[in-house]
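Please, structure for the following, as tokens.
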Amino acid sequence: MQKKHGFTLVEIIMVAFVVAIVSGIAYRLMSGTFSQYFKSQSKLTNLRAASIILERIKADIRLALIPIDESENPVIEPAKLSFCITDEGERRMVTYTFNPTEGKVVRDVIGGISRVISLTKVGDFKVEQVGEEDRKLLSIAVVVDNEKDQEVRTETSMANQVELKAVLYPRFFTETLSDEEKFWNLARTSAGGNT
């Protein structure tokens, strides 16, 4: 007669122990991988949003006109930027305003369309004029932090905040224009064109 072989209690406990250890290691690897993925996705979203805001402002500054009267002089405040551009063939003032309570940057064209240009919550928006009288520059900084749970923040979620800065050389600082630019500006104005 043959003896039947079965598993002993010790063998079953050992197998369960090995399975538990392997499962625990697999869980830690997977959760770490997914955590890194979602963190990088959040940071990438914030980077894209900040980039869109700066690119919109840069596009308008490339269209900036040299002021021809006092009403077209640029307004540069910490949370506001206003200057003259050509919009639909007319000289119009464009204004970028930051609303800190809503976390939005709004682009408003006088006599045109007003729209929110920030896709996510903007943490901070600063505009300042830097440099001396003959070397003026415009510095713009945008901080985007689209964290949904602002009260419960970990160090890793705080690292998702993105700050982008740009230093621009706008044409509305007439003191910084070269002699050649001043000459061609005068020529265009005399001919009845836009500056």
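Helices lie at 9-62, 155-158, 179-190. The chain has one domain: 27-190.
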